[in-house]
């Protein structure tokens, strides 16, 4: 069995991930036979782009595909998966969610796995899949290899990851992306309260991001907490007195920066 | 009086900021006459690059410059400034520190101000001054204009900012850069604990940074806290049980993301 067995695909879902992923696979020698979505308009639109069939009914899902890729919201999985897997007991079934364990397929599909593209997808922007990391899991070595080969058609960065690891990928992404973005939001808030333009901060933010391409974040750390500059930290906490939630965040993160700096010092005396 | 009055400069300090800034000004039709530094090696090296004189003695500082730019660590200012300003009562004196108020010059120099280039400087990397924001303050309109014209030789982004505003620029930069970088450090820590490569996170971090070039950080916010996905947030807090400081940071930032989302909803009903 080789990669050509994954030639015929059906997509379950027509949202952001399904749209970007199905189009990319279609451009890389995969035949998308059908798109399923509960929303007829979405199903028709995506199927049109892919020159594929579409359906809104679970009992009309194509029974002849080799691989079924499920990209629907987590809360719909329980309803869709049993009906889907009944359609083709021999096929390979995968979902694309960071936070959903592979075990969701247990008892439903003999061959199953996960293809998790770790990127933030939005309708307005094209996705550069060549640099998007894909995390692969399957319940057999053979299907793991098949899915890795499939992902490698799109991306240079394909990794194997267990469900447990994927959970940690997800929480790590919350810190590095969602929480980092909130630091920008706090910055935006403080600047606009004092008549200062947020765009003035962009060069510094860009340089901060560039640095971690050649230093670890611990090595790249600068600022009053890293230097243990207590005078400036006290001034800053004083400035945040009217916003106790921000003062609390300032205190907690500064304390944690100190703890990381001490840890690094100990391991590199 | 016009910009040519700032042709002759003396630099006080030979650290990262002084090195990058003096070289850039020297390339933009300024004559750096002299470099002062307590460390003879630093003074000689920078002066050599600038084809300038150098001294390590306060009483040998050039008395004929039009502008003196002070880039030394905050703790050395009290000692250096009185001796410096005595050398040339008619000149313009500025410092380059984000956190030091302009009032530090009061009683010392008739004409004074601040040129604050807001960027992270490191010896290993060249600085792109054309996109670096400069924040200018002076104690007269005339000198404000002079300093703005000088900064505009280097940068497209020159702003006026009071000492009070500069304090808020600095604390904002702590959030957007130092604290955002710590979110990367936490991410790095969680990933390496589970055998996952940090480099896999870089495309997502880059996209997070790119997004705030065309959306406000509040508009760009995604993730479980923004969606108020309580199940995932509870799972995550459970995963962080063995690291209570991280759980605390997770809780505080998530709560603050919710608060910002509610605020945005109220102002755009």
UniProtKB/TrEMBL annotation, chains A, B:
Residues 132-257 form the DUF2520 domain. Residues 9-94 form the Pyrroline-5-carboxylate reductase catalytic N-terminal domain. It comes from the Bacteria. It holds the Pfam family DUF2520. Gene3D superfamilies: NAD(P)-binding Rossmann-like Domain, ProC-like, C-terminal domain. InterPro entries: 6-PGluconate_DH-like_C_sf (IPR008927), DUF2520 (IPR018931), NAD(P)-bd_dom_sf (IPR036291), P5C_Rdtase_cat_N (IPR028939), TM1727-like_C_sf (IPR037108). This is NADP oxidoreductase coenzyme F420-dependent. It comes from Phocaeicola coprophilus DSM 18228 = JCM 13818.
């Amino acid at each position: 069995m080789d990669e050509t067995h994954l030639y015929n695909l059906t997509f379950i879902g027509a949202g952001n991930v399904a749209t970007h992923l199905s189009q990319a696979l279609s451009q890389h020698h995969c035949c998308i036979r059908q798109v399923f979505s509960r929303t007829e308009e979405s199903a028709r639109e995506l199927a049109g782009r892919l020159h594929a069939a579409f359906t809104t009914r679970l009992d009309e899902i194509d029974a002849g595909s080799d691989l079924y890729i499920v990209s629907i919201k987590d809360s719909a999985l329980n309803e869709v998966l049993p009906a889907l897997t009944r359609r083709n007991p021999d096929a390979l079934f995968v979902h694309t969610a960071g936070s959903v364990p592979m075990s969701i397929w247990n008892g439903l599909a003999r061959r199953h796995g996960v293809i998790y593209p770790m990127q933030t997808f939005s309708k307005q922007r094209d996705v550069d899949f060549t640099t998007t990391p894909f995390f692969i899991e399957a319940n057999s070595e053979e299907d793991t290899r098949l899915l890795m080969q499939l992902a490698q058609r799109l991306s240079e960065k394909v990794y194997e990851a267990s469900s447990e690891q994927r959970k940690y990928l997800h929480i790590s992404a919350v810190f590095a992306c969602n929480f980092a973005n909130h630091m920008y939001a706090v910055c935006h808030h403080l600047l606009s309260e004092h008549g200062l333009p947020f765009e003035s901060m962009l060069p510094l933010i860009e340089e901060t991001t560039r640095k971690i391409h050649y230093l670890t974040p611990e090595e790249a750390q600068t600022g009053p907490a890293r230097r243990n500059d207590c005078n400036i930290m006290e001034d800053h906490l004083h400035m945040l007195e009217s916003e106790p939630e921000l003062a609390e965040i300032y205190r907690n993160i500064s304390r944690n920066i100190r703890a990381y700096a001490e840890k690094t010092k100990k391991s590199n005396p």
